Amino acid sequence: MTSLPVLGSVGVSFAARRSWLASAARVACLALGVAGSATAAFADPIRTVTTGDFFSGNDDTGFNFGGVDFHFHVTQPLDAVVSCTPCTPGTAINLSSTVAVTGWSAGTATIDGQTYQSVFFSGALNFQAGSVIAPSGNASVLLFSPFTFTGSLAGFADASLSGTPLFSTNLVGAGAAPGAVALFSNEVVSTGLSLSQVDFHFDTASATPEPSSLLLLAPGAAWLATRRRKRSTGNSAANN
Questions:
Q1: How many of the other CB atoms lie within 10 Å of CB of 134?
Q2: Which strand (E) or helix (H) includes residue 169?
Q3: Number of other residues whose CB lies within 10 A of the CB of residue 141
């Protein structure tokens, strides 16, 4: 084995030093290139959620995500991911939220042509939305905001989430019409107005989470009925 000269040793020329440094740099670049290639090779794919919903608050909650070559569905009791009780009228309430997915009930998944009838999800869902202004009055009110979404999910065969996952993927998406939906209600008069439900509806529109809201003059019960129909449709798609 040939020993490389130590920089600063007596008799080592500047040319030799430059040659040694150039060799070391080439070796370092090669090592970084190999490491980078390995990281890219094992990175989870990024999939775009183009249809589906995330529901929180009240009943019939969970998520139903769909896109090219994948569909994930799970029902899980969830409080509204953003809350205020009582809500002060005129207060700006940001609908952004991060949801940890762990310890949930079994769901279903179809990904890359493979269907899993019982799968336990693990991961995190990050919704970036705008703010809505808490309304006044006693009537149920729906307010909306566009949102963007990033997340990651892995699927496991058992509830302990141990062993090698059946699949894992990164997710991106957005929604603008209706986007993030906040239901304010006054069902319990003694507690005042509350934010009882926050849902996120995905579509293919490019959403920019700027502070914005839209008042829909329709009772909250109508949206709840719509939610149940959408969840029923999601269950049917998951079982087919």
A1: 21
A2: strand 167-185
A3: 22
Q: How many CA atoms within 13 Å lie on the side-chain side of 49?
A: 31
Two tokens at 234?
């999601």
**106-131: pLDDT as tens digits:** 999 999 999 999 999 999 999 999 99
Domain residue ranges of the chain, discontinuous segments joined by +: 8-43, 46-239
Pick the closest to residue 224 from 86, 58, 108 (CA basis). 58
* Banded pLDDT at 65 (limits 50, 70, 90): very high
pLDDT tens-place string over residues 151-169: 999 999 999 999 999 999 9
The tokens 């995905």 sit on which residue? 202
- Taking the CA atoms of the chain, what radius of gyration do you get in angstroms? 26
Secondary structure percentages of the chain, helix, strand, coil, to 5: 20, 40, 40
Q: Which residue has the tokens 């009772």?
A: 219
Rounded CA separation 78/125 (Å)? 14
Q: What is the pTM of this model?
A: 0.72
d(CA 78, CA 56): 5
Residue 167, CA distances (Å) to 106, 115, 137, 161 in order: 15, 11, 48, 12
Q: Tell how strand 167-185 and strand 46-49 pair up.
A: parallel
Distance separating alpha carbons of residues 33 and 87, to the nearest angstrom: 54
In sequence order, the 6+-apart residues with CB closer than 8 A to the CB of 134 are 84, 87, 88, 89, 90, 91, 92, 93, 184, 193, 195
Q: Give the pair of three-digit tokens for residue 103.
A: 């310890």
- Rounded to 5 degrees, φ, ψ at 212 are -160, 155
